[in-house]
Design brief:
binds zinc ion; alpha+beta; 18-stranded mixed sheet
Length: 357
């Protein structure tokens, strides 16, 4: 029998977005409709310092889209934290980054440092000061927004012309997560599990007039097609909100998820796992003692696959599959897949690691 990945259910999520309850221009109903139009399974709303959508009973299924409500804990100028699993918004007054992480955990939630590597832009005022996350090594967070659609692209463009290009064809600007983000993440993972997600920070920046937003830079629907975080759920979603929320949040907490630029090609079906000759299986995000593990990754269409240990390439393949017998070697293993698009190599998939210690 050919090797088979663990049986998991792949759902495409868009993470980190703002509605009219904070500084976005779309209502929850409009955002859910945009999710349906873009073919998304789950929308993770994160308004600044509010769970208003949840309080109003808007969390749940909107047709084919499951909309879950977290919040972006948003102290002024730093330490933004995408927090999920909360019943009440967190009061961050006077808290540093570790204090925010602790407050979210004590309230039963978990979270991700938002745009943690933000440095600001010399060219554009919106990003001028940067909104970094301090003490990322020691804060004890669940994970990080490794790749931020708005921050990483917005801070990298150097001219109005490039900004216009980004707005017209984001896929031409969004090529790879910044190398510095990847290096820092690899270093953090050497110490402990740090879950990586891709975030949009979608606001649909524009002007709302009554029930319409006639002036807008990028519609939710368009940004939803770009960068997604796919979660791998152990059980099928059933329509029961508590059950379905637990499935999605469980996958995010455990790192059973991967980042994909679905605008390049649909990534659903990507898989990365470990297996032993006696039939044990390790899903993405898991940690286990080093041993006779072979690591395998498959993609739903041919791509350039690279498997890395502690950031260094140990195996690669051009095709649908890559495998690497670890021969007992400990390390943090992860996979990327790249595709050529308009003459350039682009990151298509970034896995979470398998940690062999
Ligand atoms: Zn933010
Ligand atoms: Zn935000």
């Amino acid at each position: 029998m050919p090797p088979a990945p663990p049986l998991l259910h792949d759902l495409a999520c868009v993470v980190h977005l703002h509605s009219t309850y904070s500084d976005g221009t779309g209502t929850v109903a409009e955002i859910a409709a945009a999710g349906r139009a873009a073919g998304v399974d789950v929308v993770l709303l994160t308004d600044h310092d509010t769970l208003e959508a949840r309080a109003r009973g808007e969390e749940g299924w909107h047709g084919s889209v499951l909309l879950l409500v977290g919040e972006e804990v948003s102290p002024r100028g730093r330490n933004h934290y995408l927090a999920f699993g909360l019943d009440e918004p967190v009061d961050h007054t006077g808290l540093d980054s570790a204090g925010i992480v602790r407050a979210v955990a004590e309230a039963g939630g978990f979270g991700f440092a938002a745009h943690p590597f933000s440095k600001g832009s010399e060219r554009f005022k919106r990003f001028a000061a940067g909104l970094p996350f301090h003490d990322i090594e020691t804060a004890g967070l669940t994970g990080i927004e490794l790749w931020s659609f708005v921050t990483d692209a917005g801070e990298s463009v150097g001219s109005v012309r490039d900004m216009v290009r980004f707005l017209a064809r984001p896929i031409d600007v969004l090529d790879h997560p910044p190398a510095e983000n990847m290096e820092t993440w690899d270093r953090l993972c050497g110490q402990r599990r740090v879950v990586a997600i891709g975030g949009l920070d979608a606001h649909q920046i524009g002007v709302r007039v009554g029930n319409r937003v006639p002036v807008r830079l990028m519609a939710y629907r368009r940004s939803f097609r770009q960068l997604r975080t796919h979660v791998l759920c152990e059980e099928l979603l059933s329509g029961d909100l508590d059950h379905d929320r637990d499935q999605v949040y469980g996958a995010l907490r455990e790192g059973r998820c991967y980042i994909a630029v679905d605008a390049l090609a649909p990534a659903r079906g990507f898989s990365f796992w470990g297996e032993t000759p006696d039939g044990a299986r390790l899903p993405m995000g898991a940690e286990a003692p080093a041993g006779d593990w072979t690591l395998r990754a498959t993609v739903p269409r041919p791509a350039q696959l690279r498997l890395r240990r502690d950031g260094n390439e140990v195996a690669s393949a051009l095709g649908g599959e890559v495998a690497h017998p670890t021969a007992g070697e400990a390390g943090v293993y992860r996979v990327t897949a790249t595709l050529e698009h308009r003459g350039r190599d682009r990151t298509w998939v970034v896995s979470n690691p398998i940690y062999l210690r």
